[in-house]
Structures are given as structure tokens and as C-alpha cells.
Design goal:
326 residues; alpha/beta; TIM Barrel; ten-stranded mixed beta sheet; two-stranded antiparallel ribbon; binds the ligand NCc1[nH]cc(CCC(=O)O)c1CC(=O)O; binds magnesium ion; porphobilinogen synthase activity
Length: 326
């Protein structure tokens, strides 16, 4: 044998020399679930180790994460039922606790990159990302609501707007709305290839945002989120979002969709984000709880694999732990 690959694995020093992929806290985004009560800290049964927090707890949490070099956060609101309605009015209300929290975070930690969530589902009594009109999830009526939500978030200080709704044309629509209002510096992280996945369960538990049982509307999101069977369709979505002014293209979920991450990374010069979603984290945590997997090693390998596939940015509930280990 003239060529022996094992020579390049013979010591830690050699392995370090030839390592192809690096992953550090700078690539990671920590998701945050925000509650209205300032001092709240509530566990999520299906996602151990992650909490729904009020703003006081969130500020403490961010301070903690910053010690480990985590600078980017993506925030989601757990909206009380009494604030929900069919069009998500509360999303742009002056008293909205999510907008107030963004202001408080950016005031206290101006150096962080704060990413929003734009979609109707946390605010909607129907639990859909778009507005339901006459039994239909109405694309173009939803765009107006998403535009207003995005402008309110930019005004509150979010650095990057994160449309997670999968309506057609919303990136261009939001970009124009932001620019019209003078927020030309506010970025857009497009949930470009977001699949109708079974792995969002714990997230929907956390926000109580699952689609409701309605008369004429399916209680799944398959008419707007992508079919897990499709890969080429993701390239089409990516072409739209890139042309409409997205600053990042996201693939979601991540681990079952590494091929999609790879394809988008090859096809587009835009930064690629991957959302390692709640269910993907939960199944690893459940196995670790039973002693079936080593949490640190398995979580690190999962994140590294997402990065190796071509993700520049990884959103994961493991971000803080990984940052602490590395
Ligand atoms: N706008 C909805 C939204 N934004 C982020 C997630 C899931 C994230 C996760 O599971 O961690 C979802 C769930 C859904 O589409 O129902
Ligand atoms: Mg699209």
C-alpha cells in the first residue's frame, strides 16, 4: 500500500492539522422563547434544558451566553391566548411585549445580532402562518400583515428580520416595506426551504402555536411549507428569495436536510443558515437522558455535520452548550 489514510489520523496534532471543518460560537444562533411576565422561567416538557423566559431572565441568559462567545439570538414570542385573533393584530401593537423586549435587549447589549420571527402563527387563533379567509390561507393578504410586522420589529431594534411563514413573494414585499420606512440596514434571513416537518413538535408546545382544528382548512402546513420529498423545488425557492433581496437563505430542519443545505450552498453565494429544529434536538436529548447517547459528543457531531454540509450559520437549542464546551 503506497497510500495509507490512517497516517493522517495518527495523533491529535495531525488530526488538528488536516481538519476540514471548524465550528465555533461565532457561527451559532441561540433561540429564545419569550414570555410576557418579566420574571418568568418555565420549562418545556418536550425540550428539556430550554425555557420560556420573561425579559429579566432573558437578559440574564444573554449575559451568560456572551461569556461563551455567543453573540446572535433568535427570539420567538409565547403570546397569551387573549392577545390572539385571526389577523395577529397584537404583532404590531404598541404594548407588544416582544417588541419591548427587543428594545431592552439592544439597549443593554448593542453588540448582539438579534433576529426576529415573522409569521402569523404565534399571534393567530387559527395557528397558521398566514391569514385564513373563507377557508383559504390567503397569500397576498398575509403579505400586508408580514410587512407591517417586519417594520414594527425593525423599529424595535431587531438587526435581522426572520420570515418563517413560507408565503410566496414575502421577501421582496418585506424588503420594499423596510426600505420605504428607512430601514435599509435591517437584514432579512429568509426561511427559504422550510419543510412541512414532523420535527417542530416541541416548538409548537413551547408557543402553543400548532394549527387549530378548523372547518375548511387542513390542520397541517402542507399548502405552504415544502414537501420533504422535494429537493429541486428548494433551488426554485432559493432563486426567488435571492432575487427578492434576502441576506441569508435558510434550510429547515437541518439534519434530515443536509443535501438541501449542500445544494443551496453550491448554488448561491449568499450565506446559508440551517435551523437545527426543536424535534431534532429533543430526540437526541431523550436518548441522552436514557444513557443511550453521550450528549456532548452526539450534539457536537450533529452541529459539525450541519456545518460540514455547507451551513454558514446554525440556529440550534444546543448553541449555548456547544459554545461552553468549545
Ligand atoms: N412560524 C412557525 C415556526 N417558526 C419556527 C418553527 C419551528 C422551530 C423549531 O421546531 O425549533 C416554526 C414551527 C412551525 O412552522 O409550525
Ligand atoms: Mg418562497
Amino acid at each position: 500500500m503506497l497510500s495509507r489514510p490512517r497516517r493522517n489520523r495518527s495523533s491529535a496534532a495531525v488530526r488538528n492539522l488536516i481538519r476540514e471543518t471548524e465550528l465555533n460560537a461565532g457561527h451559532l444562533v441561540q433561540p429564545i422563547f419569550l414570555m410576557p411576565e418579566a420574571d418568568a422561567r418555565l420549562p418545556i416538557a418536550s425540550l428539556p434544558g430550554t425555557f420560556r423566559m420573561g425579559i429579566d431572565e432573558v437578559l440574564r441568559e444573554i449575559e451568560d451566553c456572551m461569556q461563551f462567545g455567543l453573540l446572535s439570538y433568535m427570539m420567538f414570542p409565547a403570546v397569551p391566548e387573549e392577545h390572539k385573533d385571526k389577523t395577529g393584530t397584537y404583532a404590531t401593537a404598541a404594548e407588544n411585549f416582544y417588541l419591548h423586549a427587543a428594545r431592552a435587549i439592544k439597549e443593554r447589549f448593542p453588540e448582539v445580532c438579534l433576529i426576529s420571527d415573522v409569521a402569523l402563527d404565534p399571534y393567530s387563533t387559527d395557528g397558521h402562518d398566514g391569514v385564513v379567509i373563507d377557508g383559504e390561507i390567503h397569500n397576498d393578504e398575509t403579505l400586508k400583515l408580514l410587512d407591517a410586522m417586519s417594520v414594527a420589529q425593525a423599529q424595535a431594534g431587531f438587526d435581522v428580520i426572520g420570515p418563517s411563514d413560507m408565503m410566496d413573494g414575502r421577501i421582496g414585499s418585506i424588503r420594499r416595506a423596510l426600505d420605504r420606512e428607512g430601514y435599509t440596514g435591517t437584514g432579512i434571513m429568509a426561511y427559504t426551504a422550510k419543510y412541512a416537518s414532523a420535527f417542530y413538535g416541541p416548538f409548537r408546545d413551547a408557543l402553543d402555536s400548532a394549527p387549530r382544528q378548523l372547518q375548511d382548512v387542513p390542520s397541517d402546513k402542507k399548502t405552504y411549507q415544502m414537501d420533504p420529498a422535494n429537493a429541486r423545488e428548494a433551488l426554485r425557492e432559493a432563486a426567488h428569495d435571492a432575487a427578492e433581496g434576502a441576506d441569508y437563505l435558510m434550510v429547515k430542519p437541518a439534519l434530515n436536510y443536509l443535501d438541501i443545505i449542500y445544494r443551496l450552498h453550491e448554488a448561491h453565494p449568499l450565506p446559508i443558515a440551517a435551523y437545527h429544529v426543536s424535534g431534532e434536538c429533543a430526540m437526541l436529548l431523550a436518548a441522552a437522558e436514557r444513557g443511550w447517547l453521550d450528549y456532548e459528543q452526539a450534539a457536537s457531531e450533529a452541529l459539525l455535520s450541519i456545518r460540514r454540509a455547507g451551513a454558514d450559520v446554525i440556529i440550534s437549542y444546543f448553541a449555548k452548550d456547544y459554545a461552553r464546551w468549545s
